[in-house]
Design a protein that fits this description.
48% helix, mainly alpha, 10% strand
Length: 86
Amino acid sequence: MIRVCPLPRSWDRIYRELSVIASQNLNVPPPPTALILAGWNFSSDAEKLFRWRETQLWAEVYGAVEIISQLNDADFYYVDELSAQL
């Protein structure tokens, strides 16, 4: 199984927490937008994985890894094979 990204509810929570960090620091850009709602429905598994990796990198660069580390295995979306297209 391939761990792709957080499920929408968890991803939204993480995105909101990261956004608070960005809003409190003028030199910190907003985190990558979470692929939830229509973003989830119209993104391939590969796009979801790439966006999640961008989010992880953002958290590393801006000192927010502890927020992402709150996630557990049940919070993630898994696939047997990555779809590249819808």
